[in-house]
Structures are given as C-alpha cells and as structure tokens.
Amino acid sequence: MTKKEYAQAELENSKRIFKSVTPKYTIDWWIKWVASIILLCAAAIRSSGVAELAVYDMILSWIGCAMWCVVGIMWKDRAVTLLNGAVAMLLFSGLISAYVDGRLPFQG
Question: CA–CA separation, 96 vs 90, rounded Å?
C-alpha cells in the first residue's frame, strides 16, 4: 500500500482524512510509546494469572506510569500527571512493602 499525498486544502477541509495532533519522533513521543509498550507487557503478565510474576507486573507498571507522568509534565497536562503520578506512588509503595517483606524474587 502506498501512502497517498494530499493537497493542503484537502487536508484542512476533509472530515475523512485523519491527522495526528501530536508531533512524531520528539522525546515525549518516544517516552509515551515506550511507556505504553511497558504497560502492555505488565498487563500481559497480570492477565497470565501466575502469582510468581506479580512483582514483575508491579515493577513494569511502576516504570510505565512513571514514564507517563513525565509525559504529562512535558505536556503540562494535569490529569495525565496526577493519575500516573498517583498510580506510580502506589505501585512504588507496594514495591517497598514487597522488599521489606522479602517477597522480591531477586532478593538475596
């Protein structure tokens, strides 16, 4: 499939041509996509139902939410920042609790 080129007037007036509103290949673009992939991996681990992998889900979810919090700050979007910042703090407290209880698999 080849990418069709559109005239500027056609792009501005069309209701059928979808245009991305966010710029591509900027630092926030890379962070949001890497964070989204990490969060998808965390969800896949969570959906597997294997209890031994729960800590990896928590680690990946924390990393993904922290990265989305950074994106929210870069975009000056309070909702994205608040949601992901709060979830990242909750996940981090869970990780600290798991560390204190000795439930981390890589703990000696």
Answer: 10
